[in-house]
Amino acid sequence: MRTRMFFGLSVMMAAAVLGGCSAASSRAETVEHGSSPVIQAGQADQENTGGGPDARQDASAGETEAERETDAQASAGALASETPASPAPAVYMTTDISPAGLKKVYEALGRTPQGRVAVKLSTGEAGNNHYLSPDLIKELVQSMDGTIVECNTAYGGSRASTAMHRQVAEDHGFTAIAQVDIMDENGSLSIPVTKGRNLNENFVGANLQNYDSILVLSHFKGHAMGGFGGAIKNISIGIGSSEGKNWIHTAGASKTSFMGGDQDRFLESMAEAAGAVIDYMGEENMVYVSVMNHLSVDCDCDGNPAAPDMHDIGILASLDPVALDQACVDLVYAAPDGASLIQRIESRNGIHTLDYAAEIGIGSQSYHLVSVDN
Predict the structure, then answer these.
(1) Calpha distance 231→310 (Å, rounded)
(2) Are 313 and 95 in contact (CB under 8 A)?
(3) In the chain, which end has fewer C-beta atoms inside a 10 angstrom radius, N or C?
(4) How many Å is the maximal CA-CA distance in the chain?
């Protein structure tokens, strides 16, 4: 069994290993703050002591109020001290999913996007209502005079052409809060890929060259092909032009079809494409924020997604996209109701994206989770 382990967490969540992940493979590195483990950002072979909903209710019945509060904080991810004490990147977190909470966790990063700011998010497929709420992000986007940027899809649907995509963006309320730029309206821009073994170039929306910095504003959730979608997916598939999306899905075999590619090479190509965007923009010109709400197993690109079956968790931010995605994944594993999303991640071998991204130097899977709520 594979589990995620957290300092102070009393109930361990475990799920069967699916999609080619080895039960014998484990990553047990502990990130420490002072003398206490802040978070164990990896796997360890442990027995599943979580039980089902009834078992959780029975276990909580005899707890004191202080014990219940401790368990709730652990499940929500408020697991760290105020100041990181090691080179591991900080991932800041709030459980306050509101404009004020979003602003607070963003400001904790201490980096302000400069010049012409692109705000990369998903506008959401028509029929989907799990995408980021314009009311939630409006204040932050407008504070940096940001332009919401997207690229057209490769799978058809309501956002396959610029005109249709603009209509969806308007219908979903994004054009009311900021300018919206469909970046591949004028075709693709080839940028070099220097890290990895699958791609040697990446095709992004040509209008990416018009921006100086990017706020990567992601809705963390499941994904039918990648297992989960977070910061890495948002700057790889998300910034890829429609032909660039095909290119990533097929690990550089096709710009006209995304079908038939090898799963692990697709996951690796996402990491490589993300690295290319970071190199092109400059690491110092990127900031990453992920909202963990409406946690469906399906992506915002699905027009008929499964209903979320787990609680909202919070908003996280980091200057390291791998650390941010890893923290989000770990919080899903820590949640008492994350089984469906865990199965989706494992059935697609989704963790391979982060393992490989760390391997090729895109970021770190070790991190400090720092609550900004205290």
Answers:
(1) 20
(2) yes
(3) C
(4) 62
- CA 322 remoteness from chain centre: 9
Burial class (CB in 10 A: 0-12, 13-18, 19+), 272: buried
Give the per-residue pLDDT at 302.
60
Position 87 confidence tier, pLDDT thresholds 50, 70, 90: confident
Query: Domain range for residue 183?
Result: 91-371
252 C-beta neighbours (distance < 10 Å), count = 19
Residue 4 lies in a domain: no
**What CATH number has the domain bearing residue 313?**
3.40.50
And the tokens for 295? 């946690």
Give the pLDDT score at 154: 87
The pTM of this model reads 0.80
| Rounded Cα–Cα distance for residues 288 and 232 (Å) | 10
β-bridge partners, 77: none
Asked, for residue 306, whether it belongs to a domain, the answer is yes
Mean local confidence (pLDDT), 112-137: 91
Task: Indicate the average pLDDT of the chain.
Answer: 80
Is 40 a member of any domain? Answer: no
Task: For residue 226, tell me if it sits in a domain.
Answer: yes
pLDDT over threshold 80, residue 147: yes
Number of domains, the chain: 1
Q: Tell me what pLDDT residue 175 has.
A: 98
The phi, psi pair for 235, rounded to 5°, reads -100, 0
